[in-house]
Amino acid sequence: MHKRKSPLKVVPGEVRPKLAGVETVDAIVIGAGHNGLVAANLLADAGWTVQVIEATAHPGGAVRSGEITAPGYLSDLFSAFHPLGYASPVLRALDLDVRWTHAPDVFSHLLPDGRAATVSRDVHRTAESMERFAPGDGQRWTDAYAEWRGISDRLLDVLFTPFPPIRSGLGLLGRLGTADALRMARRLLLPVSQLGRELFDGEGARLALAGCALHTDLTPQEAGGGVFGWLLAMLGQQVGWPVPAGGAGELTAALVRRFTGEIVYGTPVSRVLVARGRAVGVRTADGRDRRARRAVIADVPAPTLFLNLVGERWLPPRMAEDLAHFRWDGATVKVDWAVRGQVPWANPEVAGSGTVHLGADLNGLTRYAGALSSDELPEDPFLLLGQMTTADPSRSPAGTESMWAYTHLPHRQSWPADEIAAHVERMESVVERSAPGFRSLVEARHVYSPADLERENPSLVGGALGAGTSAVFQQLFLRPIPGLGRADTPIDRLYQGGASSHPGPGVHGVPGANAARAALARDRGLTGGLYRAAVAGAHRAIYR
């Protein structure tokens, strides 16, 4: 276990006594979300003095917990299940003191007709569930999982290292060989509906993939959706979808405990200070300038960073043009419930699943996504539902359930309260149809509208959870806009460290780690000079 001195408590606007009075540090990190905290830890490990400046009164961004429904019922306010965090080599290398726990089953997709396709960490149990939908699909799932196991370590290395992943990419190519690599490249671009048809005969296994893909903003027919469905489903089979015991906030707390720099809360950053094309610090909303000798890392969405905090004056003209085409992912409405009893599922198979996808079959998923694409509210929303006490018994009293569900909405500037209330009614109706008597067991509920989500975490702009669409035109070297796909920006010593940058959303810490690595590479003697020159030259070529 990594032993670090616990940081002193910080109140809003104040600094730790050990750095009180110091106006300049090596690095300033904007935002104490998990990516910002990962970057801060890595820079502090390298011996840098680091100050994290957080706009809200709490660390963690979208990785937080609290009792928001009823006393004794602990809810994860935003993100909840963390297969990417559990598998992330970045978080593993930090050796965080977090205990993970699992539900008996990983997830179930519950069809409107009452049938369920269930993924368990026991591959034989999963295969039995898929076999009930089509003879042979049990073996097909087992074969698909064996294929995944053969390349998962190399593939995750490709996803979780800075772009371009030359060394890890060559390793994956060597593992696959040329013929299979070409076919894998095709698979990564398939819509999830097409991938499901190619791999399986029955609706159960196809829905397992499709429901996972709809954790993003992609439709079942959209290119690139297959890789997200395949990745989440196979990770669920391999490592589960675990949760931190005691709440998602325990992951944040572990990052804070490990960090030896300073954190300032309740202090929004209003401007990145730039001099001669170089980031030199930040100005906070209280009018105070804070200086950084070596780096400014921003764990905020790309439009917020470049258009609001930097300003177009310091951006290459073509970069400002590209940002005008940045696309957000959809909005979200989330409901948390305190349930005084077990959820009365009509199909008992889903009772042991930490996550339940419900409200739609394959055609229903397409209709749901089509409504969102048409800027309409789906009449029959598809729900992603979490049974948190099933995954972690500490979340509520014995025999009860702390539960949440969310669904996507079109991305809009604002939502009238009556529209949100009507959609929450639709969401509860979906649960009630699948679990008759559910409403009578609800002790209390809490609703987060898109505006509520953004108020609690300013990085969730308009209720968007992904800091930008997961569509293929905004991935890799196109994320957040056409460029290098790296944390470096055209402003020297300013780095992107949030989910708008490669490899995107998910609680894995990679954008923060990539930003810290870029800052360290730039500052490394002679090789740092070569690195700076190469990055600057590439940016001139891209944005001139």
TrEMBL record:
Amine oxidase domain: residues covered: 36-424
The domain of life is: Bacteria
What InterPro entries does the annotation carry?
Amino_oxidase, FAD/NAD-bd_sf
At the highest ranks, the source species' classification is:
Bacteria, Bacillati, Actinomycetota, Actinomycetes, Micromonosporales
Q: What is this protein called?
A: Pyridine nucleotide-disulfide oxidoreductase domain-containing protein 2
- SUPFAM superfamilies reported in the protein's UniProt record: FAD/NAD(P)-binding domain (SSF51905)
The organism is Actinoplanes couchii
* Self-association and partners: Interacts with COX5B; this interaction may contribute to localize PYROXD2 to the inner face of the inner mitochondrial membrane.
Please explain the role this protein plays, according to its UniProt record.
Probable oxidoreductase that may play a role as regulator of mitochondrial function.
Read off the Pfam families from this record. Answer: Amino_oxidase
